[in-house]
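Example 428, ligand NAP.
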Amino acid sequence: MKPVKVGLLGLGTVGTGVVRIVEGHQEDLASQVGSPIVIEKVLVQDKSKARNISIDPDKLTEDAWDIIRHPDIDVIVEVMGGIGLTKEYILEALSLGKHVVTANKDLMALHGPEILAKAQENRCDVLYEASVAGGIPIIRTLVEGFSSDRINKIMGIVNGTTNFILTKMSQEGASYLDVLKEAQELGYAESDPTSDVEGLDAARKMTILATIGFRANVALEDVSVQGISSVSKEDILYAKRLGYEVKLLGIAERQDDLISVSVQPTMVKQTHPIASVNGVFNAVYVYGEAVGETMFYGAGAGELPTATSIVSDLVAVVKNLKLGVNGKQASLAYKEKKLKTDEQISSKYFLLLKVADRAGVLARITQVFADFEVSLESVLQQPTPSNPEVEIIVITHDANKAAMQKVLAMFESLDVVHEVKSVYRVEG
Ligand code: NAP
Ligand code: HSE
C-alpha cells in the first residue's frame, strides 16, 4: 500500500491538531482509505520556535515551495491562514495536480469561486469543512444531506470567540476585554481578533454557508455585518428580563428566489434551542422546506475539533484518489443570485430608548412607528435615576428593514428622544 503523502502548511493551533489526529488515528485512517496517510513536510514561519508537539525537525521547512512543488506530495493541507500568499500557494498546488484541504474561511469566502474553478480545471479536490463551525460537519451536511431539499433559512452561531465572550458576559457579568483576552489565550480568536468581534469572521462563514445552502454564489459584500463591540452588560440584562439571550447570529434567508444574509447581535428567545448554545460552541440551525427544523451543534474552534474536520476532508480526498474521481464534484452554486432589498427584509426588533418624562411623549413615539407602518408587540416604560427621563423598551412585530431605518432616522430628529440606546433584531 503506497502511502498518501501530505504537505502541511502551518503548525499552529489547527496544524498541531492535524498532526495529532493523523498520527494518533493512523491505523483507523489507513483501514478506511486503504493506504497509510503520512505527513511528509510541514511549513512554519520559524523552525526554531518551541512547539507543543514533537515533530521530526527534518520535516519542517520555512520555504512553502519545498512543499507545493514536492514531487511526492499528493495533498496540501492549508492551515496557515491569510489570503494573498496563501491563495498563490493553493492555485499553484492545484495547477500541479495536488488536492487541497483548507480551514481558511477568509480565503474561501473571498476567492472560493476562483479556487474551485481552478480545481475543476485540474481535476483536483478542494475541501474546506473546517472553514465553518470548526468540528461540526455542516458543509458536508448541506451539500449531501440536504441535496434533496430546498433550504429556506440558515441561522448560526458560527463564531466561537464572540459566543464565548457573550456567554461569559451573560453568565458571570465578566468584562468584554477580559474575556476576549482569555479567548485569545485559548486559541479560539483569529490573529487579529477584530474580525471575530466585528462580525467579519462570521460573515465569511455565512457567505460560504449561504452559497452552498442556496446554491448561488453569495459574495462577502452581500452580507450586512454588525459585530458585538457595542453590546453592553445593560443590554444583556434587559434581554434576560424579557426572556431573551443576546447572540451573534448569522442569518441567511430565502423566500421564493430572493435571499438575504446578515450577521448581527440578536435577541433570541430563551426557548429557542440556539439560545442555549454557550461558550465556544457553535450551532447551525437549518430550515428545509421538506424536512422542517434541524440543528447541528458542536465545538466551533480549537485544536482537535477543527483538526477533526480537516482530517475527515483528507480521508474524503484519499477515498476519491482510490476511486479516481477527484475533482468531479457537481457545481455547488448553479443558481442566479437575487438579493432582497431592504423593503423585502423583515424581522422583529427590540429598541431601548431614553426619552423625556413628560405628558404625551409615549404617544409621539408610538406615532412614529405608526407613520411607517411598524406594528408594536410590546411596550415597557420604566423610570431612570436621571430624572426627568424614562426608558422605553419596544418590541415590534415583523417590520421591514427600510421602515425601521426611517423610524430610527425620525427619532434622531425628535427632541423628546434623548438617545436610541440599543437596537437589536429579535428571533424566536
Ligand atoms: P495559528 O495558530 O496562528 O498558526 C498558523 C501557522 O501557520 C503557524 O504554524 C505559523 O508558523 C504558520 N504560518 C503563518 N504564516 C506563515 C507564512 N507566511 N509562512 C510560513 N508559515 C506561516 O493559526 P490557527 O489558529 O491554527 O489557524 C489556521 C487557519 O485555520 C486559519 O485560516 C484560521 O482561520 C483557521 N481556523 C482556525 C480555527 C481555530 O480554532 N484556531 C478554527 C477554524 C479555522 P509559526 O508556527 O512558525 O509561527
Ligand atoms: N476565530 C474563530 C472563532 C475560529 O472564534 O470561531 C474558528 O473559525
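Summary: The two ends are 53 Å apart (CA to CA).
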